[in-house]
Amino acid sequence: MDIKKLISQMTLEEKAGLCSGLDFWHTKPVERLGVPASMVSDGPHGLRKQDTEGDHLGINDSIKAVCFPAACATAASFDVDMIRAMGEAIGDSCQHEGLSVVLGPAVNIKRSPLCGRNFEYFSEDPYLAGSMSAAYINGVQSKDVGTSIKHFAANSQEHRRMSSSSDADERTLREIYFPAFEMSVKQAQPWTVMCSYNRVNGTYASENKWLLTDVLRGEWGFEGYVMSDWGATADRVKGILAGLDLEMPASGGANDRKIVEAVKSGALDEAEVDKCVERILNIVYRFVEHAKPDTPWDKEAQHEMSARIAAQCMVLLKNEGGILPLNRDDAVAFIGEFAEKPRYQGGGSSHINSFKTTGAVEAATGLKVTYAQGYSAASDTATDEQIAEAVAAAKAAKVAVVFAGLPDAYESEGYDRRHMRLPDCQNKLIAAVAAANPNTAVVLHNGSPVEMPWIDSVKGVLEAYLGGQAVGLATVRVLYGDENPSGHLAETFPKRLEDNPSFLYYGGEGNVTEYREGVFVGYRYYDKKAMDVLFPFGHGLSYTTFEYSDLRLSEKAIDDTQEVTATVTVKNTGERAGKAVVQLYVAPPEADVIRPVRELKGFVKVDLQPGEAKTVSFTLNKRSFAYWNAEIHDWFVVSGDYAVQVGASSRDLPLCEKVTVTGTARIPRHYDMNSIFMDILADPRAAAVVKPLIDKAFAMFAPNPEEQTQAAAEAINDEMGAAMINYMPLRNALGFSAGMVTEEQILALLDQING
Ligand code: BGC
Questions:
Q1: Which residues fall within 8 angstroms of residue 738, CB to CB, at 6 or more apart?
Q2: What is the pLDDT of residues 585-626, one digit of tens each?
Q3: What superfamily would CATH give domain 303-528?
């Protein structure tokens, strides 16, 4: 299709009309010219295709579909191949249903455990979030169906989500809140991007040119169209100028008219509207020209696939004395309503109308399993009878497994959690069951960390997250060892909410939320503070054991235009087949820049038979070592020795090798009378010029004894002398040199070093 030609035949009104939706889910057609409408739909862990009454809050019904595990779970798989395959399955379903774009993945960073939508997001770590996101996008788009990576950007809270401004410094945005988007654009070129509701540093994302055009398109090379989150458009004309192509859902024509008026009044160049229309139609036709309505959608097969995925995502957090896997011959009590009716997805726009669900009780048919309800999730209560019944069931069994988690009302799109606790009734139930049977394990269904006041009294904890409609099947397979758990935490579980780095500022004041913890999000903070956590980022146990060895780097020293390859061997040293998640972190050298202790820069999931060993490799490049330097507005590598650390979690890194990296970029410096000697001396070129002056001017502080007076030698030791000089501005060379240095001399010197 010759899109440019098509646009040249359109009236201004038609073009303006194309810049907003027809209804909740369609782009507008232009019947006169044969331009079709195209349909987008929520997901992203399934389809929420609404045929009739539309809404963006998960209120009205959508077609029967397959609910795969939510992002909180899939991230824990650390398995890019798996999430790519899930994306392919969703792409097929979209083709079957004629959906051009699935609205996801959602990649916002988990700044606080409280964010109501954490269950939809991948991680507190941008590299992990970006890797999972890019793989999902590549999977969906391999089926000629688009994605809409969302919510761009810095949308890490639900509180006041449509008005709040996420105020973060440049470095924090670049290092923490942008990379998942950046990696996805560079590695997977999503067909569309959805801008977020919130403002970023005061400007709505939907009218933020820096965000939507300069960074997204100019720097990262995004080629598709940007749509607004549903209702995120404030000033439509500013939006066009910023690069917001499509307003969703629609404004009843009001904003289309504003676009027309702005063009007519000369406030908006029609060429800007053309650009938006071209980007939208490119994608509309990309789908239309590759539509495959005959694609089958085998929901039963996807149900089974969803179970296999869920099993790969579960994180075995604790397994004292090998309480898990369970023995098929043992009597086991499943306790807690979620055993029968699992909580397997969150509320809001991602809510899927599952064609069926399988709970653990059903999946355990044929096993020696009894069931006691324990509590009622809907009313958030556990009666004395329910607890007594649960205790009796626990006593009668060899092992008690309590299914706990967050009820629907606790976490959802639209609002944040108020605390990090499970319902009191569930904590009470777990304590009672654990007191009745020392062999108690807990299965958790939640989208974000919870406090575990009972952790020391239970032997096992299996974090099942919101594992999709087949989660019960997966849970039973993992509990009984048919599947070996291999998930690792994509987020830290702090001991208490108060430990979280955003605790003091999360939610903000009025419409301003300051991201004051900066880059110290999640483990970047806990590690810097050397703080005890409940379970660290990257943690996850297995029914087998792994040994890491032979970490080797291809180079001892590189400059930042070069790459270094790290290879490492991982061996299954246990009795069962299992999957290891090999994690690689880079720790920067000591420098003036305040940085996290280490950051995840590579991971790979490795499938190993008992006794089997495999060697895996990682490529590290400039971005693996760089931080964002706000002076030069670019990535910058500090020269020095970087530690490459490899292991099974952020706090279990048995292997370490050093690589010396030389940064090739220079930060331009300008010196004046107020520049301090320390900074001048750190710059070799300037230091060579200024050193003789220092020796002359500061004889009295100099470490050289012949040049010191007796009194000065007694009062000032070498270190102090050096420090005194270091922190002094150049201008002090005048006053402290007893006339030996003149102003003219200093000015001449400044000319020389600035020249
Ligand atoms: C959500 C988006 C969603 C859209 C459409 C909004 O409320 O923030 O994630 O895709 O609705 O349902």
A1: none
A2: 999 999 889 999 999 999 999 999 999 999 999 999 999 999
A3: Glycoside hydrolase family 3 C-terminal domain (3.40.50.1700)
